[in-house]
Amino acid sequence: MGFLWSLAAIFAGYFIGEIVRLALRRVLPKVYYPYANELISTFQLSVCVFEISVIGRFYNPWIALWCSFVLLTVKNFGFVFEGALANPCGLLEDLVYDQGWLTDNVAKIVFQVLGALLSFPFIQMLWLSTWSELHYQQVKKGLRSTLDVSLLYGFSIEILATFVSTTSDFLSRGTLRRFNPVIRSAVCVLLSIFLSETTGTWMNPALATAQTFVYCSRKEVITEHLFVFWLGPIIGTLAAIEMNTLFLKPSVNTQRTKSRLAKKIKQSSAKNHRNRAVNSNSEQKERLAKKA
């Protein structure tokens, strides 16, 4: 019965998110909708992770891992969330490759964190409304930090896990791109199996903040949390992107150079065109003055 309550909570969170998404899509201008989409998608993802955590702690960890694999696969295939990343680290690739504005990505990260934080009051309301023994135990024990190792060790684990996960994404974008979503999901689950007794291997700063820090009764200080669960995954992601740039995708630097050169040529051409127009007007005025 408790497992069915968990599934019901997951579907309830997703359904609520889709209703809000539908309403905001009609109300908000298109330029603002991506931010709302990140908020809603992170809310939905966080609700799912909360329930999967309950299943893993009080029901069966292997079923929880299977649920995690299914959730990640569905997300990676793009069947849910309408293309939203729901992970601050997912925005770094576009930022590094000059495909997104810094302010735009920072705003999306803020909305991702907000969506994750909003998920707990919702899921807690559901936990208090059920007659499930699993959820009764969850409410009784509350949330706690998943940092069960030293600070530097946890920092290294988050870097390693995020680096391996992101690298698996880059490696499977070629001939294996058809299986890319499944490979990424499998790698994340395997990392969770082997490294679960360390930091929880979140690899997602927004979810880590909502689920292991803000609402926890036992937690690390904020600087430690930011060091392990934010700086660690960010460094791991950037390291994977740099490796992809140098070894897996050497054409990136060439493309970026060509793009910058084309931009400079375009700007120079526009400037020359304006100068010619100004000179032409000046000459025309001089001729008219001489005739007069």
UniProtKB/TrEMBL annotation:
GO terms for molecular function: channel activity. GO terms for cellular component: cytoplasm; membrane. Residues 262-292 are annotated as: Disordered. The chain crosses the membrane at residues 6-24, 36-56, 62-85, 106-130, 183-203, 227-248. This is Aquaporin. It is found in: Membrane. InterPro entries: AQP11/12_channel, Aquaporin-like, MIP. It comes from the Eukaryota. Gene3D superfamilies: Glycerol uptake facilitator protein. Signal peptide: none annotated. It comes from Pocillopora meandrina. Keywords: Membrane, Transmembrane, Transmembrane helix, Transport. PANTHER family: AQUAPORIN. Pfam families: MIP. It is a multi-pass membrane protein. Residues 262-276 have a biased composition (Basic residues). Residues 283-292 have a biased composition (Basic and acidic residues). Belongs to the MIP/aquaporin (TC 1.A.8) family.
